[in-house]
Structures are given as structure tokens and as C-alpha cells.
User: Which sequence fits this backbone?
């Protein structure tokens, strides 16, 4: 699992997950420090139970859904996660479409419910044999799906340009 720093108008929200939180399976007890832009292996996704993606009434989460997938990913991947300190995403925190603006009460309720769910066991072999260079290379490949700001951060002038060195 890989995640990077995102920045809103004021500051970046992401941080490395404390090793103790990983060792003691306590990631749901720390502030949410892994946000946009994230990648993960499909086999992790396949391990998430459908019930973990639904609220107490059995409906799929409409807010805080990222917590519903990120906590299981972190719990299963353990120390096989990579945090990229570079800002790779700029979040528009002023958007009226943001869950925090549309439904702050629902977002808070979903957050509390997701944190109360049972933890996932750590997978025995969930290594991430990637170097920073390999990660940047993979992020460049992924960049065609990301905003223009990400392309500029990675050294591209336009979608068809070669990286600027």
C-alpha cells in the first residue's frame, strides 16, 4: 500500500503511520493520516469483507468510505506500506461537494462506526519490494489519471511531453 501527502489550503494532512500503531494493530485509534493519493494491491482489496463497507443499516458508506478501505489495508499490510512525503495532490477543501461540507454529521458518525469495526489480521506475506525510484516511476505511469498539478510535480509539462530533468 502506498499513500502520499495531500495539501489543502492550509497544510498537509498525511503523516507516516507510527510503527507502534502498526505493531499493536492500533491504527484505528490514531488520527486519520493517510488520505489522497493512494495505491494498493488488488489482492488486499479482495480481502475486504463487504460488511466492512456498509453502515449499521447495511447501506454502503456515503461518507468516510476511504476509512472503510484504508484501515483494513493498513492492518493487513502492516509494515509493507510506503509513505511518500512529497505533495502529490492538492485537495480543494472549499468545495461544497466535500463530505465535510455536505454531511459533517454523517461523516463523523461513519468515522466512529468504521473505527469500531473488528480489525483485520496482518497478512503473513505482504511485502512491498519497492524503492523510492520504482515508486516514482509507477506514480508517473499512474499520473495520466491524476490532476494537472500532479503531472507538473512529476516534471511533465503536458500529457504528451517527456519528463523534464
Assistant:
Amino acid at each position: 500500500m502506498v499513500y502520499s501527502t495531500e495539501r489543502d489550503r492550509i497544510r498537509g494532512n498525511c503523516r507516516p503511520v507510527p510503527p507502534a500503531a502498526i505493531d499493536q494493530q492500533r491504527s484505528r485509534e490514531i488520527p486519520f493520516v493517510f488520505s489522497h493519493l493512494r495505491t494498493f494491491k488488488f489482492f488486499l482489496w479482495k480481502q475486504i469483507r463487504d460488511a466492512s463497507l456498509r453502515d449499521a443499516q447495511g447501506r454502503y458508506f456515503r461518507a468516510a468510505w476511504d476509512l472503510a478501505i484504508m484501515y483494513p489495508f493498513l492492518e493487513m499490510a502492516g509494515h509493507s506500506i510506503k509513505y511518500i512525503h512529497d505533495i502529490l495532490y492538492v485537495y480543494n477543501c472549499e468545495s461544497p461537494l466535500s463530505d465535510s461540507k455536505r454531511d459533517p454529521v454523517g461523516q463523523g458518525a461513519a468515522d466512529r462506526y468504521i473505527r469500531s469495526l473488528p480489525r483485520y489480521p496482518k497478512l503473513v506475506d505482504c511485502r512491498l519490494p519497492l524503492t523510492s525510484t520504482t515508486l516514482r516511476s509507477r506514480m508517473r505511469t499512474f499520473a495520466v489519471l491524476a490532476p494537472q498539478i500532479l503531472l507538473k510535480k512529476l516534471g511533465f509539462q503536458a500529457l504528451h511531453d517527456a519528463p523534464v530533468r
